[in-house]
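Notes continue from the previous slide.

Worked example: a multi-chain complex. Inputs as given:
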Amino acid sequence: MSEFINKAIEYFEYPFVRYALIVGVLIALCSSILGVTLVLKRFSFIGDGLSHVAFGGMAIASVLNFTNDMPLTLLFTVIFAIVLLMSGKNAKIKGDAAIAMVSVGSLAIGYLLLNIFNTSGNLSGDVCSTLFGSTSILTLTPTEVYLCVGLSVFVVAVFILLYNRIFAVTFDEDFSKATGTNADFYNFIIAIIIAVIIVLAMNLVGSLLISALVIFPALSAMRIFKSFKSVTVFSAVLSVFCSLLGILTAVFAGTPVGSTIVAVDIVAFIICFAVGKVFGGKR
Amino acid sequence: MKKIISLLLVMAFAFSLCACGKSKETADKKVSTDNNISSEKSADSIDYDISALNTTMAYSQVIEMCQNYQKYLNKTVKITGIFACDITDSRNYYACQIKDNTACCSAGLEFVLKDEKVYPDEYPNVGDTITVMGVFNQYTEGTNRYFELRDATIIE
């Protein structure tokens, strides 16, 4: 045990481990609180779709030789998040079909551009790293950490300040509009926040696994709690715990960070499902 | 009022996490001191023993060394990885590479042996696992910066 503690203390003295834990906690927190809204609005797979859009944006930035691909990636993701979330009930291509179309289209075009205008010496490595996260979370620079902290504070602050409006728009958008709430504006805010979270989360778990960060904590919380506030709080706590445990396990065991975090989320869901079945859920 | 308090708590939480970075220099000095202490105990005087780390940590540490190279210049580094070489008309480049845990990316350090040896007879086979120890150094070729272990020895 003392050997494990000594090893843990030694590992924590590496700056990239501390950065990974800070960013991992913040991303898990942000993705989980928005995840509840997305799951309830039946947009669970939007994380997957937008992450593929972010991949396409990253590919374009890479082809154009941008030093920092985050601004262009964020711009593309925000635009498509707004298009997908604000298309509304009158859209000709609705919900899951729109997400699927945007998702596979962005992935294909992004990979095609990277192949044709290859500026990297290791194309497959870059693509694999973006899709699965690899050790991206463990190779962050201090600037990226500060940016992540700033964006996370923004996301959480907006969620807390607009909690009642987001709650109303999530559960009954038509009623919200009827009572004078500017539902379109709040959907616009939600879309921007989701885009920011997706771009940040790509560093943690990669494009293909982002949906897990969004979906699993919310669904786990819904097995036990029934009220929106309880589900949101428990989802946030659970997501942070799973993210911490996943990163630490990956660091100590040498496993891929993204997959390990998702595996921990799955175990947590199973436990919450069992607890919900046994105790019947708490209102 | 509740929302303002919640907001303040969130910001305090976020900034308290940022404060961890203030001890970076202290921690790094401690790491260096600890490594120096361990190096005093061993005959090899290793400042950074990357060979003792698992794949995830070793890969990340090499990336960290390349990103913040000033901190690691002239430090003795020991690394275990796969031997790779690039034969060109001007010179040969030898490296010790570490693959990340998804095996799709690799990071490594070029090394220049202390004792001149003839390739390929006196070098390992490409793809062999080797452990190299040398002094971390940086050099430029054209507009690019590269990193190497100079005065290196292949331990195993």
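Summary box: The interface with chain A takes residues 3, 6-7, 10-11, 14, 17-18, 20-21, 24, 27-28, 30-31, 34, 54-57, 59-61, 63-64, 67, 100-102, 104-106 of chain B (CB under 8 Å). The longest strand of chain B covers residues 129-141.
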